[in-house]
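Form P-L/3: holo structure prediction, ligand heme C.
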Amino acid sequence: MKKWHIGAVLAVAILVTLGASSNSSITIKSNPDEGFTNLKVLPKNISDKQLDSVMGNFSISLGVRCNFCHARKADSTKRGLDFASDNKDEKNIARNMYKMTAYLNANYFIWNNSTRPDTIHYVVCYTCHRGNHEVDAKVFLNRIDSVEKAFHKNRH
Ligand code: HEC
Ligand code: HEC
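OUTPUT (holo model):
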């Protein structure tokens, strides 16, 4: 039977990063025949290790834990999260964000000739979120305002 364990190192890294303590023993069992059962944007044949890495990346980029996007098990006598469930809006927003990010990279960040190998040549969740699920506008609000006005003017 195929079992999926969060890599110990990553789990520790996430727990330390997020200051969490109670979820240190999550074990995810992917369906033995079908693997993960409800993937709509990630490749269906993604390996356990790759999925582990993507989910860790989402969590750190947004500064949240798994339960920010994943609903609890419907059977309230059971502990833990139902990872395949779509009962939390945040999970679907994350799917849209993933599609948007992939689109931006495919269409606007084709940066083969960069002279700066030390910079990141594509957009990731962290580019905008910087460790927050709500992208912080306070600091930049005045400047964002003028960009937004110019943007709307160009569209009319
Ligand atoms: C920002 C939102 C978000 C966070 C945080 C998040 N996930 Fe996910 N997770 C998703 C989305 C979206 C999918 C579905 C991807 C798709 O449709 O291809 C998913 C799918 C999964 C699946 C596959 C379920 C199946 O069978 O289809 C597992 C397992 C999973 N996540 C585990 C985790 C774990 C463990 C954590 C915490 C370390 C975590 N996720 C954190 C958004 C999130
Ligand atoms: C181009 C900038 C940008 C990128 C890239 C981006 N996001 Fe977002 N995201 C936003 C903005 C702006 C919001 C709205 C924030 C708010 O409501 O204050 C948002 C909101 C969200 C929300 C809802 C948060 C909440 O509090 O309800 C989720 C979940 C999310 N993003 C996940 C992701 C994931 C996962 C990725 C990477 C695959 C990603 N985002 C990449 C800009 C971005």
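COMMENT: Residues 58, 62, 90, 93-94, 97-98, 101, 123, 125, 127-129, 133-135 surround heme C (ligand 2) (CB under 6 Å).
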